[in-house]
Amino acid sequence: MSNAMTATQAITPELRAWIVEQASAGVSAEVVFKSMCDVGWNPDVAENAMETVLTEHLQNINGANTIISDTADAAKALPEPALADSPGTIMVGGRAVTVLLVVKHPRVVVFGNLLSDDECDALIAAAEPKMKRSLTVETKTGGEEVNADRTSDGMFFQRKELSVVAALESRIAELLNWPEENGEGLQILHYGPGAEYKPHYDYFDPSQPGTPTILKRGGQRVGTLVMYLNNPEAGGGTTFPDIGLEVAPRRGNAVFFSYAAPNPATKTLHGGAPVVRGEKWIATKWLREGEFK
User: Fold this and answer.
1) Theoretical Cys-Cys bridge with 145: which of 129, 138, 232, 233, CB 3.0 to 4.6 Å?
2) How far apart are CA 97 and CA 91, in angstroms?
3) Sign of CA dihedral 138, 179, 125, 278
4) Cα 107 to Cα 109: distance, rounded to the nearest angstrom
């Protein structure tokens, strides 16, 4: 990349070509991001440029509504709904999913009507007998641990474990243009009064010794979809402190966000605000670069 390109911080044709060339050669998003920052790119500009260029490149190759089926190609881009024409509604498997909010950086999209009331009830009913104190990934060892920042109960469904889970996973894959097999198992979480999940990142910290073990199961996380299964009486929103955004937990709705690199510059710091009254049920789907095993 030229000095002029670094100085102007513009997404020029030369930069687009270089990013696509690196991705096509199999260079990871982390390495591309670091290379740009090392030669003087502002981290925010670098992250936004990578996301924009790779998303457009993927859509030019596959079409905006085509689900990625090749793991190698999937690792070069990000999950992304078809928003090129600023639609108010996206038809997914015969269901009209509404687009309620779109933020470009960080990439945040709020959807309405992603799940039916019956689906929300079925997921809660199937999960409730199996709920235990939620754990978080322990990046020092690659295992799991109880975390004082996360005061919820939870459980995981295996992919396609139930018909309602399989139907939802297929819908998510189509909506976000990302392979079903690149998704972790669906997690159901329950928050009672006062329960919360303090702000955190969903990607795995590359500096931690346990991260290489975690990445063997499908690479980095590149996207998160949080789905709301009920309506708390008060509180329980999903917060994004870096941009001053809070998404209200409304039954059947969901918030999606993606992150091109495991770096705070993605501005994907987020948390679950304390439940003030009532209770909150959510389903979370994390998306990996490659097939999750």
Assistant:
1) 138
2) 6
3) positive
4) 7
* Residue 35: burial class (beta carbons within 10 Å; 0-12, 13-18, 19+): middle
Q: If we measure between CA atoms, which residue out of 153, 155, 108 comes closest to residue 268?
A: 108
Is the bond leading into 106 cis (omega within 30 degrees of zero)?
Answer: yes
Cα distance between residue 75 and residue 46, in whole Å: 18
> Which element (helix H / strand E) includes 187?
strand 187-191
CA distance 185 to 160: 9
Q: What is the pLDDT of residue 149?
A: 60
- Taking the model in full, what pTM does it have? 0.73
Residues 202-208 have a mean pLDDT of 93
Per-residue confidence at 137, pLDDT binned at 50, 70, 90?
low
Helix axis angle for 43-62 and 29-38, nearest 10°, is 140
pLDDT digits (tens, 9 = 90+) for 23-66: 777 677 777 888 888 888 888 788 878 877 876 765 564 444 43
pLDDT, mean over the chain: 86
- 35-to-9, 19, 40, 74, 207 alpha-carbon distances in Å: 14, 11, 9, 21, 17
DSSP string for residues in 250-273: -TT-EEEEE-SSSSGGG---EEEP
- Length of the chain in terms of residues written: 293
Residue 26, CB half-sphere, CA atoms under 13 Å: how many? 3
pLDDT in tens, 140-160: 655 555 566 666 789 999 999
Strands 132-133 and 153-156: antiparallel
Helix (H, G, I), strand (E, B) or coil at 276: strand
